[in-house]
Amino acid sequence: MSTIQYLLAGMVIACSLTLWGCSNNNAANTEQDVPFVMVTQPATAYSEQKSYAGDVQARQQTSLAFRVAGQITQRFVDVGDEVKVGQVLATLDVKDAELQLSAARAQLESAQSAARIAEDELKRFKQLLPSNAVSRSQYDAVDNQYKAALSNLKQAQSNYDVSRNQTGYNRLIAHKNGVVTARHIEVGQVLAAGQVAYDIALKGDREVVIGVPEQAITEIKVGQPAWVTLWSKKDEKFSAYVREISPAADQSRTFSVRVALREGQQAIQLGQSARVFFIQQQDNALSVPLSSVSATEGQAYVMVVKPDHTVAKVPVKIGAYGRDAVPVLSGLKAEDYVVIGGVHLLRDQQKIRPIDRQNRSVSIQAGG
Q1: Residue 189's Cα: distance from chain center in Å?
Q2: Which residues contact 176 (CB under 8 A, 6 or more apart)?
Q3: Which band of pLDDT confidence, cut at 50, 70 and 90, is reported for residue 165?
Q4: Which of 17, 214, 284, 337 could form a cystine bridge with 39, CB 3.0-4.6 A?
Q5: Are 162 and 154 in contact (CB under 8 A)?
Q6: Contact in structure between 231 and 290 (CB atoms under 8 Å)
Q7: Each residue of 304-340: pLDDT tens digit?
Q8: Which is it for the CA torsion 340, 346, 349, 351, positive or negative?
Q9: Closest CA to 238 of 217, 215, 216, 259
């Protein structure tokens, strides 16, 4: 073989080796371009947690007012003070009431005297009637005068009792134990009968009052369990339940819901800010992680992995977002595998290598 033939053979071998190496590098590069993607199947039970802000109130509250009009002369308690049954909270000027009582007492004494005179007169006529010393018509007139005197006496007695009660109403007295939450009076102020003087939170159970919007009120039921946290003690949770739901919305279109506490009564103070949490379990409802959902032009979608390990962009209808997951109302099946993260970085029909949360390879079978 000539030298030229040797050179040509060497060049052919070198080109072959070069092409084979390039082919291997391209295959390796292609293999490296297929990304590892974490996938999961939809959860078949969805737990949604909702919370509402509120404040701590006493279960029973009352407003105290004087039963008569008058001018405030003294007040003995202020906001935050504890009151006990029978304690005097404030007094009114009693001068006018004492004058009315004196007048009523005088009228009563006069009526009592008139009744005694009429009774004595009737007794005399009773003695004279059998002997015909007086006529029957005269006796009947005296008897009617006695009956009228008794009626006047009863009226005077009632007027006196009313005046005496009115004098007693000049003192505002606590009828139950509690704490003053609001004061609406000052010394020297003139009040009308029934005008509120104090608001009292009665001693006993505490509860949290929240406002629930009208679109969510149907999800809350009386007796439904809940738990409460305080802004000042966020690490502590207190068991509670829904005690009462207002039948009508207020001006802000929210319904007042009273959540009673099962525990922590001594640790919770009136007026503290609190948050009530509800957990709603939806069985047979599909849900996926929040990072599995993306959207284009307002249409939500997920990336579903096919048996050939390519991904397909699948439009879905979703519900209200939760803290960690979102319910899928339609467009997805329980046996599907969806991409967990980086959905917006993938292309439709792109090849991937699916792995689970423990970085283990996932095999996608046809039909599930």
Answers
A1: 36
A2: 62, 85, 200, 202, 203
A3: confident
A4: 337
A5: no
A6: no
A7: 999 999 999 999 998 777 777 888 888 888 889 999 9
A8: negative
A9: 259
Q: Which DSSP symbol is given to 264?
A: -
For residue 126 the two structure tokens come to 């009773």
Instruction: Tell me the pairing of strands 254-261 and 36-40.
Output: unpaired
What are the Cα distances from residue 285, in Å, to 281, 300, 337?
Answer: 9, 18, 16
Q: Which two tokens stand for residue 326?
A: 């979102």
Which strands, in side-by-side order, build the sheet including 88-92?
171-173, 88-92, 70-75, 190-191
How far apart are the C-alpha atoms of 355 and 62, rounded to whole Å?
Answer: 63
Q: What angle do CA 328, 332, 337 make, to 5 degrees?
A: 110
Cα 361 from Cα 28, distance rounded (Å): 19
Pairing status of strand 353-355 against strand 36-40: parallel
Radius of gyration of the chain (CA): 45
* 3-state secondary structure at position 301: strand
Distance CA 345, CA 213 (A): 38
327 forms bridges with which residues in the sheet?
287
Distance CA 42, CA 368 (A): 12
| pLDDT tens digit sequence for 77-116 | 999 898 999 999 999 988 877 788 888 889 989 989 988 9
- Structure tokens belonging to residue 208: 């949290």
Query: Which tokens go with 215?
Result: 């679109």
* Rounded distance between C-alpha atoms, residue 231 and residue 222, angstroms: 25
* Tokens (6 digits) for 327: 């319910």
CB distance 67 to 193 below 8 Å: yes
Q: What was the pLDDT predicted at 15? A: 45
Give the DSSP H or E segment for 343.
none
CA distances from 27 to 11, 21, 74, 78, 353 (A): 24, 10, 97, 86, 16
- DSSP-derived letter for residue 344 is G
> Using alpha carbons only, what angle is made at residue 159 by residues 154 and 165, rounded to the nearest 5 degrees?
125
